[in-house]
Specification:
The structure is a single chain. By secondary structure, this protein is an alpha+beta fold. It has three domains: about 200 residues, FAD/NAD(P)-binding domain, CATH 3.50.50.60; about 130 residues, no CATH class; about 100 residues, Polyamine Oxidase, Chain A, domain 2. Helix content is about 35%, strand content about 20%. The strands form six sheets. A seven-stranded mixed β-sheet has the order 9-8-17-18-19-16-20, with helices on both faces. It has a five-stranded parallel β-sheet with strand order 11-3-2-15-21. A three-stranded antiparallel β-sheet has the order 6-10-7. A hairpin with a 4-residue loop joins strand 8 and strand 9. The longest helix is centred in the last third of the chain and has 19 residues. The radius of gyration is 23 Å and the shape is globular.
Length: about 525
Amino acid sequence: MTAASSVEGRDRRRVRYPASPGHRDLALVGTAPRVAVVGAGIAGLAAATGLAERGCRVEVIERERYLGGRVGAWNEQLPDGTEVAMNRGFHAFFAQYYNLRKLLGRTDPALRRLRRLEDYPLVDAQGRRDTFRGLPRTPPWNAVAFALRSPTFRLRDLVRMDPRAAAPLAAVSVPEIYERLDHLDADTFLRGINFPESARHLAFEVFSRSFFIEPQRMSAAELAAMFHIYFLGSSEGLIFDVARDNFDVSLWNPLEEYLTAPATPERPGSVRFRRGVSIDRIDSRGAGFELTDDTGTTMAVDAVVLATDIGGLRRIVAASPSLGDAAWRARVDATALAPAFAVQRLWLDRPIRADRSCFLGTGGMDPLDNISVVDRYEAQAAKWARATGGSVVELHAYAAAQTVPAPAQRAELRERLLARLHAMYPETESANIVGESLLWRQDCPRFSPGDFAARPGVRTPHPRLALAGDGIRVDLPVALMERAATTGWMAANTLLRQWDAAGHTLHSVPARGRSALLRTLVNRERQPR
C-alpha cells in the first residue's frame, strides 16, 4: 500500500474559502479568551486546534476516556489476557476531505500515518462485483468509466433513464440541491429516473448505508450531494486512505501532544483535556457562560463550542433554558438520530486467504454491509496476526435496527453476521474465535427527507456560542468526517471574529457541478412546461 496523498489534494478546481484577517495571537492584544469545547470528536478537536492557534485558552471536556468520538480507539483484553486494539469500526479518509486532512497535517504534514487502499470492491448477493481500481480521476469520465465496466449497468439502462429528471444528480449545486430534492427519499428518486435496480442496490445502497440509513429513509438531496462529492464534483479519485494503526496511535495521541505542549508561535494558546466528564447544563452569564458538569463542578468561560453528538446536544440544550431563543431551541430539539448500527470484530486463529481485499462492501446481504480484514492495514492487528498465525476481521451492520436491540436480538444478528462471513470467506468457517467484540451504538445524525432545512447551523443566537459536528448544517459540499472537521474549523472562525482574530482557510470540492452542459439541462428542467 502506498503513502497517502497530500493534505491539500490534487484537484485544481477545489474551492478555497480565505481566512478572515486579524490578530494571530490574542494574548498579545489583551487577556487570552477562555473557551470551552464540549466534545473531543473530530469537530471538537478541529475547533480546539483553530482556537489554540490564535492564542485562546481552551478547555476540552469529553465524556469518554478517549479522544476522537466515533473515530476513537481504546484497548481491550482477549480471554487469554492479551491486550488488543479496538475502535468503532472502519473509516475511509478520502483525498477530498481537505479540512480533516489539514487537521491531521498539524502533526503529520506528509500524512505518513495514513496509507492508500488500492481498491475497495463492492459485491452483491448475485456475486456481481464492482471495483474502483484504475478509474480516471477527471469528472465525468470517472463516473462514466465506472458505469460502463459495471456488471450491473448496461447501455440499455442508460437509454431507459429519464435524463431530464436525472440531471440534478449530475449537476449538483449546494445548498440549492436541498431546496430541490430534500422532500424526496433516495429510493423514490432513483426509481423515478429509472435508474437500474441492480446498480441501485449495489452502488447507491452501499454508499447510503455508510450514512447509517437505508435508501428508503435517506434524503434524495443528500444522495445527490454525496454523488457530487465523491464522483462528479471532484477529481481526487475514488480511492481512499486508512489509518496505519489504531486511531489513537495514528491520529489523536499525536494531536493531543501537539495541543498540550508548551506554546509555540504556530500555536500560542493552551489546551487542557478533561476526559470522563459530561456537561449537564450551560448557563448564559453576561457575555460568557457557566458550565456545570456531572460532578457539580462549574466553569466560567468567555465562549463555548458545543461539539457533541446529536443526543448530547439535545440533552444539554434542553437542560439549559438560557441558551438561544425558542425557534433555535426547537430546531435543536427536532434533530434526530439515524438507526442503530453494529460493529463486530473477531480475532480468529487462522488467516484470511491472501487474495481477499482489505475492505469489501456488500449489497443485498442484510445485515452485512462490509467486511474489513483489519490485520492487512492496521499495525497492532498485524502484529497480533503475525504472532498467532491468525487474523483480525471486522463486520459492519449499518442501520441494523431502529433502536439498540435487546440481548436476544443482538445474539441473533451476531449469528447472521457470522453466517454471511462464512459464506463470503469460507476459510473462516473452520476458524476458532479467539476473541470477539460486538459494539452497538446509536449516535449518528439522521439525514432523512426534510431534515436539512430544520438542522441547526454553526452560528447560534448567542455570538459566543457555536455548534460543530457532522449533524450540524453547513452549506458546503462536505459529508461524514469532513463535515465534522469543517464545522469544527468554522466554529473556531465564528468565535475568533468576536475578538478580531484571524480565521482559518477552508477548502471544499466545487459547490456546483463542473459541467456547464449538465447545469444547463437542470435549469431547463426547472422551467415550467
